[in-house]
Amino acid sequence: MPCTVVAGGFWGDEGKGKVISYLALNNGLDVCVRTGSVNAAHTVWFEGRRYALHMVPGGFVDKKCRLLIAAGANVHVVQFVKEVEETGVGKRIGVDNQASIIEDEHSARDKADQHLKGLGTTGWGVGPAIEERVKRTAKLAKDVPPLRPYLTDVSAETNQAIDSGKNVLLEGTQGLMLSLFFGAYPYVTGRDTSASAICSEAGVGPSRVDNVLVVFKAFATRVGTGPLPGEISKEEAIERGWFETAAGTGRDRRSAPFSFELARRAVVINGATQLAVTKLDCVFPGCKGMKTYDQLPTAAKRFIERVESETKTPVSLVGTGPDALDLIDRRE
Ligand code: IMP
Ligand code: MG
Questions:
Q1: What is the DSSP-derived secondary structure letter of residue 295?
Q2: Pocket flag, ligand 1, residue 74 (CB < 6 Å)
Q3: For ligand 1, atom 21, which residue shows the shortest CA distance?
Q4: Which of 162, 169, 212, 238 sees the fewest Cβ atoms within 10 Å?
Q5: Ligand 1 pocket check for 121: Cβ under 6 Å
Q6: Which residue, by CA, sits nearest to atom 19 of ligand 1?
Q7: For the segment 26-61, what is each residue's pLDDT rounded down to a tens digit?
Q8: Which residues are catalytic?
Q9: 38 close to ligand 1 (CB < 6 Angstrom)
């Protein structure tokens, strides 16, 4: 493991939360660093309970894991405090001094702006908050009293952990197709979402990363407006068992079949060393809850093998159900 970056390959909601919680439970994590902001919700099913995490890193399920929020992240203070309480991680979570703050006023501006509305933003205010940061008028974590007990230097902690050979995970949010640089502009979020950007937000140089794990879902979904190649109707999605609603906003997710072309692009730009494919059970019946590759139906195996041959990258983790442990682990 030592330093692994987890990045989304499509439009977010690929199941990064599930994959991260599996790695935390199975390998043990020493440090888990969350990037991005409150617009992204990572769903983790753990001990029979569902968590939709907008701020707390998914590695919280390992009770020894140090949890950090990166300098490049945007912190929503009320949501942070609420999730810290829900997950009981107050003694082991830290926020970088220089993380910026997203406020109610940003959300109000996000919702009132006709242009942003037209893009179908989440309404959390991340675009306006980043605008302020770029203008250099944003508040930083060190300026906000409720965050005082949590302040730390995240890049220093993270690099020290890497130096001492600890298991470090850099948790990306959203997916490559929502990247400000590589997605279908303007139907994107306000930041780059690629593996390099995740490292940059955390303050970890590219030479320090051992693994880039790109997460795909066995079909694609997106919320908000903008292109979705091969999109199917809501009725069709319901029939296929692909219909989802957003963990963060409750909106309907649009869906489409897996795109090998987009997957190849996500692998190249992220520099993926390994892939995870989640929700295989939603596309190939008979996979649910399976824990070994050999148990899978032939069509499901053929799909995984095609993902590997088209991307020239091994699929090391395969999701077969919602729980963190519903997963086939093919790593050596
Ligand atoms: P914003 O990030 O709220 O500005 O929204 C810009 C676009 O990114 C919209 O299409 C949102 O639906 C999408 N988006 C932002 N965060 C997420 C996420 O975590 N999952 C899926 N879509 C997201
Ligand atoms: Mg999500």
A1: G
A2: no
A3: 12
A4: 238
A5: yes
A6: 40
A7: 999 999 999 999 999 999 998 889 999 999 999 999
A8: 13, 42
A9: no
